Amino acid sequence: MPRPNILFLMSDEHRADVSGFAGNEIVRTPVLDWLAETGVVFNNAYTPSPICVPGRMCMMAGQLPKTCNCEGWKDLAPGYRTFSREFSRYAYQTVCSGKLHHQGQDQMMGWRSRVSPDAEVVAGAVDDSIEEEFARYRPDPQFKKWSNQRELEEARPGRGPYQAFDQRAVTGALEYLGRFFDDPLYRRPQSHLPLFFKLSLKQPHYPYFTDQERFDYYHNRVPVYLEEPCDHPVLSLSQQGKPVCASEAAIRNATAAYYGMIDQVDCHYGSVLDKLKSLGNDLDDWIIVYTSDHGEMLGQHGIWEKTRFYEASVKVPLIIRWPKGFAGGRVLDENVNLCDLFATLCDLAGLVIPEGLDSRSLAPLLREESVDWNNESVAQMWEDHVMIKRDALKYQYYGEEVPEVLFDLERDPGETTNFLEEPEYADEVARFRKRLAELGHGVEANPEYRNAGY
């Protein structure tokens, strides 16, 4: 029995609630909605780290940031075991087009082919650098990443850099799929091999640009968050460490462009699915995954970008579709994590699941099998920021000098009340602190931490 082909669709910075299948009645996402209607939606899926590089690295490694040493803006070590490297061992042609965000020397990370862009090789630090020479050169202070303030002020209709990037990624994907399944010129298709193909787009990551039609369509329809930051010293900050002061008009422009970018992403995915069907593929034979690396605050709680443990930032959309393997049309509420995709895909494809992962196979949930699910999900940022979600409770730790936070999403879905000191939560708080120590964090951190112990 040949192993199933896998199509892995990924966007960047896509809020879990800005999709039609998630109940959003404004955004146009017919392709994602079809995947959801015929697949399985995970309603409580979380990133292992709410920022691009560690979130993506941990997903590929099937391990939390502390386990794989990606607690900051770090790549995996060269040659690290990733799901692309593991599937390559089983004769899969592992191919990626688009954003991987690998920043170190190992630009392939187990992929056998990368067909379109985001493949700049960066050597990293120079082992025997002469510090005096490097000290002679400093960047001009006026040239730096836009502030969140300017991101909002610049949002408008137009063709931004990520629109062009994504179009190249999709074009490369379509060309590669044509060669893999048909290759009319050289008559050397590779379709005798199983294919693991990932299309990874940069939208809807800021800067916020979209075409005029989409901008006009969404401008007067989108919700606008005009909230004030809370008084917590960490949760109140944007990624750049200060609140954003923007007009309602600027926020509306950015939100409209953001919605338009998601609309465009959905169209790109549709072109890939249409291409596969035109090449004679039955999509029901394919395992199709859709997700994103993290969310986007969009001004909720007065914050933009990500790096927070609010739902808008740490929660991600996740759909898995394979009609030949399990029934679709279902929504699951278990707490899961992007790290779980490593073990899940291995399990579904019939590969041996490697040891030492922080990855639990979702296959029993997908197949509606009886399973004693450990209903937690963990996310980490830097070395001392940790979120543990169990059932509807979300505990957050930010180091010894910063107040802990406990949200109860059943009582307070807007995440405005810290229940940590409420007597009725005392037992749960004690359990969370014990689990924090097991995960290698806090004042009683396990000094022999190896992994999450799933």
Q: How much helix is in the residues?
A: 25-40%
CATH superfamily of the largest domain: Alkaline Phosphatase, subunit A
Helix/strand class: alpha/beta
Q: In what range is the share of β-strand residues? A: 15-25%
Count of separate DSSP helical elements: 13
For the record, the CATH architecture of the largest domain stands as: 3-Layer(aba) Sandwich
Shape: globular
* Level-1 CATH class name of the largest domain: Alpha Beta
Element string (H = helix, E = strand) = EHEHHHEEHHEHEEHHEHEEEHHEEEEH
How many strands appear in the DSSP assignment?
15
Terminal CA distance reads: 30 Å
Radius of gyration, CA atoms, in whole angstroms: 22 Å
Largest sheet geometry? 9 strands, mixed
Low-confidence stretches: none
Protein name: Sulfatase-like hydrolase/transferase
Organism: Puniceicoccus vermicola
GO molecular function: metal ion binding; sulfuric ester hydrolase activity; transferase activity
Keywords: Hydrolase, Metal-binding, Transferase
